[in-house]
């Protein structure tokens, strides 16, 4: 299947560069370009996009608001948003993850990283791989000393619906591990891991694995490492 990609950035030159890169791949195509968030939301629906490469800072409705609108629209439940940013550490990025983005990449990433991110997001199999994603989530989603007072009580209560094994898998997902890696760590099959991940997403109302990571930190199940 061809991955349908929408480009949302207010810089035409960057959109052109991304278009050339994406369209050069046999398994993906650019189906539209947007220069602001409102246009991105509209085109995501009109063009049947699978993945939106979303800049954060755009005029009018910015990328953060657009991401929230896409994730809140049942008609766009299949759409995955990958945030593109010039900043490796940016509070807006975490807000975007909370709003429903599947992950983020720096605009200075290598072409292969960007193409891989599109495929990963479209497949919904894992949080985007760059190490900066995990570090950023830990730094901002669970700021402070990790005391119980910092937990989101509503999130923590929802974890009660998970089985013990599902909690174990969730901790591993929050650590950025793939299904194969989790399977090896827990000595089960990758298919079993995938089943647990899907059940956890269903019980917690998560769109994808990125949202599972957010929930794991916000609920206090996983604590940030203090370097």
TrEMBL record:
Ranges of residues in domain Response regulatory:
4-122
Query: Which residue intervals define the domain HTH luxR-type in the entry?
Result: 155-220
Spell out the SMART domains in the cross-references.
Answer: HTH_LUXR, REC
Q: Which Pfam families match?
A: GerE, Response_reg
CDD domains in UniProt: LuxR_C_like, REC_NarL-like
Q: Does the keyword Phosphoprotein apply?
A: yes
Post-translational modification 4-aspartylphosphate, affected residues:
55
**UniProt keyword list:** DNA-binding, Phosphoprotein, Transcription, Transcription regulation
Keyword Repeat included in the entry's annotation:
no
Tell me what this protein is called: Response regulator
């Amino acid at each position: 299947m061809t991955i349908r990609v929408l480009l949302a950035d207010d810089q035409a030159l960057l959109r052109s560069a991304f278009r050339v890169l994406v369209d050069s791949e046999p398994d993906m195509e650019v189906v539209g370009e947007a220069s602001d968030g409102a246009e991105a939301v509209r085109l995501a629906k009109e063009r049947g996009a699978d993945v939106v490469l979303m800049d954060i800072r755009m005029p009018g409705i910015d990328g953060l608001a657009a991401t929230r609108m896409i994730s809140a629209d049942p008609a766009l439940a299949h759409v995955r948003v990958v945030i593109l940013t010039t900043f490796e550490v940016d509070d807006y990025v975490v807000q975007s993850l909370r709003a429903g983005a599947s992950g983020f990449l720096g605009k200075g990433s290598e072409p292969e990283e960007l193409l891989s991110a599109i495929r990963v997001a479209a497949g919904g199999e894992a949080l985007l791989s760059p190490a900066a994603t995990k570090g950023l989530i830990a730094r901002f989603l669970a700021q402070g000393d990790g005391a119980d007072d910092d937990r989101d009580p509503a999130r923590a209560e929802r974890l009660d619906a998970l089985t013990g094994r599902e909690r174990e898998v969730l901790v591993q997902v929050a650590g950025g591990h793939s299904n194969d890696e989790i399977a090896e760590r827990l000595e089960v099959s990758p298919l079993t891991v995938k089943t647990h991940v899907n059940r956890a997403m269903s019980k917690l109302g998560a769109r994808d694995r990125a949202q599972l990571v957010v929930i794991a930190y916000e609920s206090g199940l996983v604590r940030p490492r203090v370097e």
